[in-house]
Amino acid sequence: MEPIIAIVLALIGYALGSAKLINQGNEALVERMGRYHRRLRPGLNFIVPLVDQIVMEDTTREQILDIKPQNVITKDNIYLEIDAVLFWRIRDIEKSFYAIEDLQAALTQLATTTLREIIAQNTVEETNVTRSEMDRAILDQLNHTTADWGVEILRLDIQRITPPESVRKSMEEERAAEIKKRALISEAEGEKEAAIKKAQGTMTSMQIIAQALRSHPESKEILRYLVAQDYVDASQKLSESNNAKIVFLDPAKSNEVYDQLIAESVVQETNTKNSENGNT
Length: 280
Hints:
By secondary structure, this protein is α+β, with helices and mostly antiparallel strands.
């Protein structure tokens, strides 16, 4: 009985020693007699005790690498402090173990060097405007190298770009000046549009008045009254200004002035219609 028990215990020990459980999301590498033998997938796996050895078990899930703030000089010789985060994952666990000694340290150094190189090709303004394009350029350059390490760089996010205080103040002043400039342009365009509409309205009013005068000559007296009323209102508004100069119209010549205004309105209306007929 004792030999049988010993055999059973030996088999149990062998089974326990050869069974290896790999969790979901992980993979492992097995070496046999010091050389790469095979890869263990998630689940229950068996190896040969004393002959096979698991030399590495790592995750194939997405991982995050925080790149510490770096001082980088731009194309226009401005020092910036850059803070970024790198997202990566292992695609080939065999390459990630045998092709590089310290994977995370290598990724950190590669990302830092590439970040400095790309930003050095841009000015401060370009760095702020084309951040997404820089991210793509850095990503492409990183993946070109890390493919040999069995690693894929999923994305690199530049979290913060901090220029010196003097540069930041100048950029804020420039943005404020640009906003003020756009506001002044909008205001000028609005005033121009209002003036055009007012002129169009005045011309339309003169045409209506001229048409009414031709149809009803007796309405000239009404026009004289309206012009005189506008004259009085305008004189009153001018008198309220400290810098205004009031010009009084000779009452004896008012009729001549009104007749001249009416005649000019009629002539303008006639010229407008002749011009329209000529175009047609």
